[in-house]
Amino acid sequence: MSIRGLKKKQPKTFKVKIITVDAEMEFSCEMKWKGKDLFDLVCRALGLRETWFFGLQYTIKGMCTWLKMDKKVLDQEIPKEDPISFHFLAKFYPEKVEEELLQEITQHLFFLQVKKQILDEEIYCSPEATVLLASYAVQAKYGDYDPNFHEPGFLAHDELLPKRVLRQYQLTAEMWEEKITAWYAEHRGIARDEAEMNYLKIAQDLEMYGVNYFPIAQNKNHTDLLLGVDAKGIHIYSINNRFSPNKSFEWSAIRNISYSEKELTIKPLDKKAEVFKFFSSQLKVNKLILQLCIGNHDLFMRRRKVDSIEIQQMKAQAREEKARKKMENQRLAREKQLREEAERAKEELERRLFQLEDEARQANEALLRSQEAAELLAEKAQIAEEEAKLLAQNAAEAEQERQRLEITALKTKEEKRLMEQKMREAELIAVKLVKESDRRAKEAEHLKQDLHEAREAERKAKQKLLDITRLNYPHMVKYPQYSPIDTRDANFDKGSIKLDLKDIDLKRLSFEIERERLDYIEKSRKFEDRLKELKSEIHALKLEEKQSGLYS
């Protein structure tokens, strides 16, 4: 057979998306499949055996409808989309959840759906009951409460209370969390399936639990009413009150339900009782009401009959599973208790060990402190001894210093006296030098004057001699080369030599006077420097004397 032939024989399929309360799944369905084929596929995928409670719901033209099991999927009025979406939901509710819900998956799906209906306010619940239900939901999700792990704010991202309750009370999210946690802490030791079952047992007692409401009108006066269908029967409500029905028909008291177009008729089992007729808005609504009535009535009658072999097996398995889980939970609880006791004993031992270590540490620290104190005292004693020696040495040095200062003071006084004497002598010498300087200056002035007078007399003598020479020897002036030499000329030369010698003596005398004057100036300068040094020494001696007086 060719590959093309195989392709032709493969059945055509269409895609379906199944949406549960907490997950989504996609399947490929054959074109000829009926609703039951698709429903069985979903149940097998979920591992669900209690299939009679559930159905596949879809929305068409704003109306929720259930997929019919005996008709082909594509022949029904379903949405034209790819993939086709169906919601896998509980269609019928049990009268007593604890007795009828056998599988854990069935219980979990009911828990999720009822919880969503309460949060969406499809089922009314009092604020106190919502807090209690929320605590069981937290127990089912997080397990036992642990204050070390479940810190404040751990429920911040969980939707646990209806918005109506949050608006009704002016409480912060932290306050609501505190209230829920107070109940949550009391559920310690409850397993997840037990917490979900406790949730459902509380929810099944609510007035709106498991009721499907439809708007209707009575035939006589066309009063607007609500018709409710649940596991126990049919109930008639006023439009503004969904809690307390005005009239109820239990399934055991209903003989027949039928509809004709928009009219629906309920015939009681008692033939003498009045037949109840009402009108709905659409024919589809009557079909849906009749479908729900038939399903709930069948379940009602099944509960009151002997269980089938399948149900008996499922109940036996459920009992065994519950017993096994109970034993497992007891074992886990015992192990948990032993572990907690061991942890507490460990914590106590660690605390005791820490305490002993702390005491040992404190003892060691005290011992170290005492050793340090002893070493410090020994060091202080040694320091005190050294200080005593040092003080004794300082006292001896001070005594020596005192004696030295006394000697220094005596020397200072003697030196001061000598210096004062030297200063007085220096002052006398200075006075003398000043006087001598003045005298020498006067003498130098007189000598200069005498020198000047001598030079003036010499000049005059030379001039006079020249004049005499000219008068006596006029021809010598004119003819100096032929002048005769005689005794007078020789005498003249001797006089000139004498004059020259006298001139030389005057120069030498002037030079000596100048040199003595310079020597005197140099000695005066040196004497002044020496005088300044003497004054500085006297000033330093005075300071030392003052300091020695302070030391004394």
From TrEMBL:
The keyword Cell membrane applies. It is found in: Cell membrane; Cell projection; Cytoplasm; Nucleus. It comes from the Eukaryota. CDD domains: FERM_B-lobe, FERM_C_ERM. One of its GO terms (molecular function) is actin binding. Keywords: Cell membrane, Cell projection, Coiled coil, Cytoplasm, Membrane, Nucleus, Phosphoprotein, Ubl conjugation. Residues 311-464, 517-544 form a coiled coil. The keyword Coiled coil applies. Residues 14-304 form the FERM domain. GO terms for cellular component: cell projection; cytoplasm; nucleus; plasma membrane. InterPro entries: Band_41_domain, ERM, ERM_C_dom, ERM_FERM_C, ERM_helical, Ez/rad/moesin-like, FERM/acyl-CoA-bd_prot_sf, FERM_2. A 1,2-diacyl-sn-glycero-3-phospho-(1D-myo-inositol) binds at residues 68-71, 287. It holds the Pfam family FERM_N. It is a peripheral membrane protein. PANTHER family: MERLIN/MOESIN/EZRIN/RADIXIN. This is Merlin. The lineage of its organism: Eukaryota, Metazoa, Chordata, Craniata, Vertebrata. The gene is Nf2_0.
